[in-house]
Every structure is written in structure tokens, then in C-alpha cells.
Design a protein that fits this description.
Helix content is about 60%, strand content about 15%. It is α+β, with helices and mostly antiparallel strands. It has 3 domains: about 70 residues; about 35 residues; about 150 residues, Heat Shock Protein 90 (2-Layer Sandwich). Strands 1-2-3-5-4 form a 5-stranded mixed sheet, with helices on one face.
Length: about 290
């Protein structure tokens, strides 16, 4: 019986890799056959051998997924680090443009003093076009949070996904920037992916609420999803291992800060809530990936 139980554990750990599942199933069948067809000390020896093999297989499976996650996570972290630098640069560019506001006013006054209204109007039109390219959808008070949210919301806007977004954290120190980008970025990616997978004609919606509540960083994301989408107990889509990796990354980082995650799904709706206690050390925390 121990052989069968060990193999079942290994079978569960193989997740969506059917090749490994078949190997684990072989251990289950062999273990059952050993218990039925052998007797006495032979049964004990065979059962012990199968138990050892099944245990070794379970360990190998664990190592396989750990290595797989490490490879994907390393690539993800490198991408997120580069992305963080890029969006931070864009945000600084926007702040620089706003800093030039006084100079723009002086230029307009000069046109008006010379009664050149046509030039003044052309100048205003040019400023309006530039403002549209740098204006952000969210102003939370945290540059990195604004950057990642606005980048993802731009994608939602491009795909005509209705959104309801409220984010305000002020100047409160949050978690390390890279960790914040990974958590929020993966949450938004998973939500957008689920919405985009909905059949044409289904109601689509994305709701984001981020704030400081009771000295905790509170993140709530609600998205619609295909009504027939299969979700396992790990809350990873059974059709996309990348989504599962993202969820495991979120879980690890939230645990790193002693936070809590609550996931709920109903018919055609998925909700993720995260609460991370805040401390003054979070903004200086080193990323532990």
C-alpha cells in the first residue's frame, strides 16, 4: 500500500506532464500487482523495491520542476528587471515634461504678446498631442506601481477591455520594486489572458483596486474568464503552464513578505486578493527569487 501511495503522490506532482504521469501510473500498477501476485518475504522485498523506486521518482519529479521553475524564473526576473528600468525611464520622462510646464507658458505668452494667435494655437495643439502620449491612466503615488499598471492597462485599452481601476498608495514605502513588478505584472498578465480567452460575445471586465489598508498593501484584481475554463486546486489554468509558473512566483513572493493570498472563482469570474504587511524595510529588501 505504501508503494501505491508514494506513486500517487508522484503522479500528483507531475501536474500536466503526461509522460511523467504515465511513468507514475506504471508504479501504481506494478505496486498493485506486487501486492496481489506475491506472498510472504517475496512480497515484502518487491514492495520495498517499488517503494524505493517510487520515492526516488518522486524526488526526481520535485527536482525536475524546481529546475524548470528556476530556469523560467531567471528569465522572467531578467525580463522584469529590464522592463522596470524602461518604464521607470518613461515615467521620469513624463515628469521632465511636466517640469517644462513653465517654459511652455512663457512661449505661449510670447505668441499672444505678438498677437500671433495662429502660432499660439498651433503650439497648443502640439502640446496636446505630446500630453496624450505621456499622460498615465493611473496616478497611485508610487512610480513603479504606476509604470506596471499603466503598461498593462494600455494593453487592455488596445484590446477594448472595459476596466475599472483605483490605485492609491501615496508615498508609503512598499515592497522591493522588482518584487512589486513581478507580483502585479503576473496578476495583470493572468487576468488579461483569461479575458482574452473568452469567446466573442461574452461580457468582459477587469477591475483593479490597490491601496494601503490597515498598514498592509492590499491588491484586488477581478477578471471575467471563459465559463468552461478548468482551474485546478493550485489556481493555474490547466491549459497554460506559464500561467501556473506566474502563480507560483506570486505565491513565493507574497510568502516572502509574510502576506496572504485569497483566490476565489465563480462562474465566469476570478478574483485574487493579496494583503502584504508593510514595514520600513520593504523598500530596501533584496529580491529573494
Amino acid at each position: 500500500m505504501g508503494v501505491i501511495l508514494a506513486a500517487v503522490v508522484g503522479l500528483w506532482q507531475t501536474q500536466n506532464h503526461w509522460g511523467l504521469r504515465l511513468i507514475a501510473l506504471g508504479f501504481v500498477l506494478c505496486g498493485g500487482a506486487a501486492l496481489v501476485l506475491t506472498t510472504g518475504w517475496v512480497q515484502v522485498v518487491v514492495a520495498a523495491a517499488l517503494l524505493l523506486a517510487a520515492t526516488g521518482f518522486s524526488v526526481l519529479v520535485r527536482q525536475f520542476f524546481a529546475q524548470q521553475d528556476a530556469v523560467f524564473a531567471k528569465g522572467l526576473d531578467q525580463m522584469m528587471a529590464q522592463y522596470s528600468g524602461e518604464v521607470q525611464g518613461l515615467y521620469e520622462g513624463m515628469r521632465g515634461w511636466r517640469h517644462d510646464y513653465h517654459d511652455h507658458l512663457q512661449a505661449l505668452k510670447a505668441y499672444l504678446d505678438s498677437q500671433d494667435t495662429a502660432a499660439a494655437r498651433a503650439y497648443l495643439d502640439d502640446l496636446e498631442d505630446k500630453l496624450d502620449t505621456v499622460d498615465t491612466l493611473v496616478h497611485s503615488g508610487n512610480p513603479m506601481l504606476d509604470a506596471i499598471l499603466n503598461a498593462k492597462l494600455t494593453l487592455a485599452e488596445r484590446d477594448n477591455i472595459p476596466t475599472n481601476v483605483k490605485a492609491f498608495v501615496g508615498a508609503t514605502p512598499l515592497i522591493a520594486d522588482l518584487d512589486l513588478v513581478v507580483i502585479v505584472g503576473n496578476l495583470m498578465d493572468n487576468a488579461l489572458e483569461a479575458i482574452e480567452a473568452q469567446p466573442a460575445g461574452e461580457k468582459r471586465r477587469l477591475r483593479v483596486y490597490i491601496a494601503i489598508l490597515k498598514q498592509q498593501l492590499y491588491i484586488s484584481i477581478t477578471n471575467t474568464r471563459p465559463a468552461d475554463q478548468q482551474i485546478d486546486i493550485h489556481y493555474a489554468s490547466t491549459k497554460n503552464d506559464k500561467r501556473g509558473l506566474g502563480i507560483r512566483r506570486i505565491n513565493k513572493l507574497v510568502a516572502k513578505y509574510g502576506g496572504m493570498i485569497n483566490r476565489q472563482y465563480e462562474e465566469a469570474v476570478f478574483v485574487t486578493e493579496i494583503a502584504i504587511p508593510l514595514s520600513h524595510d520593504h523598500s530596501r529588501a533584496n529580491s529573494d527569487h
